[in-house]
Specification:
There is one protein chain. This protein is an alpha/beta fold. The chain has 2 domains: about 120 residues, Response regulator (Rossmann fold), CATH 3.40.50; about 110 residues, Beta Barrel (OB fold (Dihydrolipoamide Acetyltransferase, E2P)). The chain has 8 helices and 15 strands. The strands form 4 sheets. The chain has a 5-stranded parallel β-sheet with strand order 2-1-3-4-5, with helices on both faces. A hairpin with a 4-residue loop joins strand 9 and strand 10. Helix 2 packs parallel to helix 3. It is globular and about 50 Å long.
Length: about 270
């Protein structure tokens, strides 16, 4: 596997040095540059298009303008967005970071084993992507398609287990259309039309799940793959193959914008 280039964007020089020291022990990583503030960091990313960005989201100096919103700029300017591992001094921004689809969350001071765990998760994904590309190349060479299918489908959808008094109910995450809060429990609505109740809060599921699941309302966590229409005026999402509409609130408007941005990155035509 080719080296994974990386850039560090952090206004704490000590943390930058620590990250680089750990990365030097990882053969898969190749240092490109570092920056201490937003605009310089963005310029470096656009110039070098690294595979990984180590981003500080609670900087020492507010003047650096470093935050999770740096990731929005990546989606705005890049077709292929680098993997982002964020660093922070506390867990306060962890749930928000999940909504920004970060690949890792490192608490300062950063421990070596936690650094390598975050990096290994990315290198594993990168290897799978390379296998997929190789498989598609083989397909162009008229190699049997079932081989390609086996490679591409090697990563299964997340399996959720809903437990209740000795009853174990298994659900594939891609079968879930949306979650709806019901006091201290959550109703899970499936693509089959079935509803299952889990005795966990909606916030619990928000903390566990990543893209394509987004919190869009105090009462709703939605699988964006099932969204057919977003009406920003009436603040409603219409679900695919149904007339069901899910409301979204102003406080979660940033997640709606992120969903819209994600749609535009696919095979997309606006008319």
């Amino acid at each position: 596997m080719s080296a994974l280039t990386y850039i560090i964007i952090n206004d704490c020089l000590e943390t930058t040095a620590q990250l680089k020291d750990y990365a030097d022990d990882c053969q898969e990583l190749l240092f490109v540059a570092s920056a201490t503030e937003y605009q310089k960091g963005l310029d470096l990313v656009l110039a070098h298009t690294p595979k990984i960005i180590f981003l500080a989201i609670d900087p020492k100096a507010k003047e650096s303008q470093l935050s999770l919103h740096f990731i929005n700029a990546l989606h705005k300017y890049l077709t292929v967005v680098p993997k982002v591992i964020v660093t922070a001094k506390s867990k306060e921004l962890a749930f928000e970071a999940i909504n920004f689809q970060v690949s890792g969350y490192l608490l300062q001071p950063i421990h070596r084993n936690e650094f390598f765990q975050a990096v290994l998760a990315i290198t594993k994904t990168s290897k799978l992507e390379q296998m997929q590309q190789q498989a598609l190349s083989l397909l162009d060479g008229n190699v049997e398609s079932n081989f390609v299918s086996n490679v591409i489908s090697s990563e299964k959808s997340l399996l959720l287990c809903v437990k209740s008094y000795g009853d174990y109910r298994y659900i594939r995450a891609n079968e879930v259309v949306y979650f709806k809060a019901d006091n201290n429990s959550t109703d899970i609505y499936l693509q089959t039309g079935e509803m299952i109740t889990a005795f966990k809060t909606l916030k619990h599921f928000e903390g566990l799940l990543r893209n394509p699941f987004y919190r869009i309302h105090n009462s709703y966590l939605i699988n964006s793959n099932y969204i057919a229409r977003i009406h920003t005026g009436s603040k409603l999402c219409t679900l695919r193959n149904t007339v069901k509409k899910i409301p979204f609130s102003k406080s979660y408007r940033s997640n709606i914008e992120l969903i819209i941005d994600n749609f535009s990155e696919d095979n997309y035509l606006e008319v």
